[in-house]
Amino acid sequence: VRGAAGLVKSTLNIGIASEVAQRGRMSICSECEHKVDDKCNVCGCWLSHKTRLTTESCPAGKWGAEKTANA
Length: 71
Description:
Elements: H1 3-11, H2 19-30, E1 35-36, E2 39-40, H3 47-50
Antiparallel strand pairs: 1-2
């Protein structure tokens, strides 16, 4: 998550990805070699927050930002 702003957005439910995207991302992360507990060892983000936000993507290229109608 890109700093404190991303954590705040996730906590306040701003820019939240679809449930399908969130589940898919977390499924990919759960099997990733870079995951330790709830953190990504590549970017240092908390996955429970990072996977919720539409604008976030995997730093290892395993999943991308969610496409929106405005994008």
